[in-house]
Amino acid sequence: MSKFFHNLGRKGADLVKKKIGSQGGGKERGETLNALARNDSAMYNIVMNPTFEDGTSWWWGLGCAVSVRDEIQSRYCVAHGRTEGWQGVAQEVGDRLEVDVEYQFEAWVSIYGPEEQAPVTATLKVETESSGTKYNSIGSLAATRGEWKLLKGKVKVNDIGKSSVLYIEGPPSGVDILVSTVALMPITSETPELIRELENVAISPAAQTQPTQGLLLNPTFDDGLRPWAAKGCKAYVTESLGDIRPAQGKYFAVATQRTETWQGIEQDITGRIEESILYNVKLTVRLLGGVKEARVLATLYMKSDDGKDQYVTLGSVNATSTSWSELKGEFQVHKSPRRASVYIEGPPGGVDLLFDSFFCFTPPRKRVEGPVIFQNPRYGLNIVHNSNFEDGLKYWYAQGNCKLFVASGSPPLLGGCAQKSLVNSKAPPALSGAFLCCSGRSYDWEGPAQTLTERIQPKMAYQVSAWVAIRSPAQPGAKHKVDVCLSVDGSWIQGGEVIAGDAWTEVVGSFRLEKEFQKVHVYLQGPGAGVDIMLAGLHIFAVDRLARVPMLRQRADQIRKRNVVVKLQDSRGVPLAPGTKVSVRQSRSSFPIGSAINQYSFENKAYRKFFLETFNWAVFENELKWGWTEPNQGQLRYGDADELLEFCERNNIPRRGHCILWETEDTIQDWLKPLSPTALEEAVHNRVKGLLSRYRGKFRHYDVNNEMLHGSYYKDRLGPQFLPYVFQLAHKYDPEAVLFVNDYHVEDGSDCRSSPEAYLEHILDLTQNGAPVGGIGIQGHIDAPVGPVIESALDKLAVLGLPIWFTEVDVESENEYTRAEDLEVVLREAFAHPAVEGIMFWGFWEGAMSRKNAQLVDIDKRVNEAGRRLLALKEEWKTSFDGEVGAGGELQFRGFLGDYTITVVDFGLSQKFELVQGNDVASFGLTFS
């Protein structure tokens, strides 16, 4: 209730108070208001999440997909991918609906698609045991594209049944339904008047579906092109172009007669852009002519006071010629430029660019949330019922038209990752040996399923473990992808993925549901038609992730420390007297903890200061990438990389080189794509020679060909022998650099393409074909990290004997305390594993990272809880203490590797030494004169 009326503004909330307040005495009125404030499903609105503030929680797509458009001042839900008139936005209301009570229904609705007008209907579907399914029509109207209308109606039921679903349907195939601010309110003697007055104060979503004007003037082109300008092409504003209509509003702009990728429309923002402000970008764009799909970029151009030009990508999207696409991004500037403009570019020449709207605005700051408190976390308890199938198929059902049956012959023990998490729990690791077989499958999404709605908590980290196998009569011995997935209100998330054959294979993973939800079920899927799936011992349980901390501290003590004996004497060689007070301070840790940096952010003094105080290694985020150093053939630009390199050398910071090549197609420059194989190989040779000759000896590591497990651009065009050849070529031009492979989803179990087994096979193939691979890069973009899953991946890769680095660590959560715990899990697992030799963050500053809600420092320079957690761990991993000299002038301790200063307190004199890796006791003799 409170969320619903909050959307109507303060006047609507005051009206509710006034009406309720007129019904009784003071104390009674106060209690009524308090009850309403506590309960969203109180007497005036039984719809949960009525304004979609919690995304699609409680809602799902009935036969289609649903998503929420998150605008600056409002949100609304879109039902898309519709192929039938009955498909739309749905919510189960049966647990809040009352029999023989008349309800008033209201919702703001609109449509988007090829139709100017289409019917939109609200329906209540009631399924009963006795009389089957009954469809109660609530109300209907002719909705109009680009305009919001209020859909109203009334409904009363005499049986709630086992399911009562409220849904909004109606338009024909291909037309999206837009829904905002839904209410289903019981009608009392006071309600009609209250409803009428609320309608008078309610604000139509049409006035709230776009941000305020913000940084850019005329963002919706209502005033034509003013103050927009065509950049290298022609531009105009129109209401339609053939059958193309605006996504919203009345007009859209067209950039035509384009001959180059950089051409589009531009707006000068000189004097309006502010320093240290986080701007959000939202652009609605479409293509016309030439291609069906192309990358569109929003770019900020700035000229500094010293005349230097800067180009910053604000966001990008793969736009299409069939529908409008939305580009989103964020940015900040650290120094007011002499001149600045924003423009849109990207598609090749000959393709027209269409712009419905373009906003740059300052979003409201989110309230800082406290730590999430779980009242009854039930760590280690399997929330999957009947996972050993002692009760046959109880709780299980088939998703699709496949068949389920129980058989025996599966592993008798729980998978290794789960056992490590459950070591301190009461859950027995033994399994029954029974398994569930799913046969008669016609689609890859068909498989066994179980509803988990009442047993799962939002914001909790869960671990997944199961044994899976497949049986393919048509292809004996074949292997297929198998996924453990969760359906959450119509959307799905990954719980684990593996390549399985007829032998039992453990699938592992983890997840967290960030938002409130209405319906969750787990299911198995993956192989194509005719392939049977077998499932045994599926366990999903909440993880007390910090329970491993004592063990990880012990491991870190074993591998990151060394015993030390320091003999202290005076200038005459006489040992210092027993009891002499000394202080030992570690000034530098030798374990690399670094971060990605970028030249643009280095204008921010606070950014530079935090980096220097926190990190001891660096990697350039973009400035060494081929697309940056040679965006157009033969036009080399190394100036940004040179500036960052000079900064690092001045501050004695070692560097990783990222990256020589990038194997995924969407990162390839346009000028490379039409080259013949011979010309492409020549261009690659020039790239490797030019980069590594220029910076020979300047970078300790190189990521040679980024993400080879997820891309195959060069491999497809130049043959598989090309992959080891690039390593050989890099070694030729900088033989001292350690050459790394680098990929993502290696450590989290969510992608079979980059599983530890697939990575291991890939590295062995490279080395067996002559590639001098010197290190293994694990990127570390993790969503809900769980220690044993990470440890298992590291153990599997460690058999190669190569150093492992976490190369691009970031963890993402709106709640900074959850983010801090995620971060601690990753860092402790990495630091406590003997094969890991370094950790690199993929940025740390809000607005200067590729993932939102991953920052350690907020835009206002506040070090948040995640940043404080990192700093606390760095202090834990340093050795500093006050002590006394023992017999013979000896001081004994066990310390982390790095630089030390010992001070004799009585003398006020200090000496320095470095503690390096070694298995024996490190001995030092220090003289204090």
UniProtKB/TrEMBL annotation:
The residue ranges of the GH10 domain are 578-873
| Keywords attached to this entry | Carbohydrate metabolism, Hydrolase, Polysaccharide degradation, Repeat, Xylan degradation
* Signal peptide residue numbers: none
Q: Name one GO biological process term.
A: xylan catabolic process
Matching Pfam families: CBM_4_9 (PF02018), Glyco_hydro_10 (PF00331)
| UniProt GO molecular function | endo-1,4-beta-xylanase activity
Against SUPFAM superfamilies, the record matches this protein to: (Trans)glycosidases (SSF51445), Galactose-binding domain-like (SSF49785)
Q: Which residues cross the membrane?
A: none
Q: Which family does it belong to?
A: Belongs to the glycosyl hydrolase 10 (cellulase F) family.
Please give the name of this protein: GH10 domain-containing protein
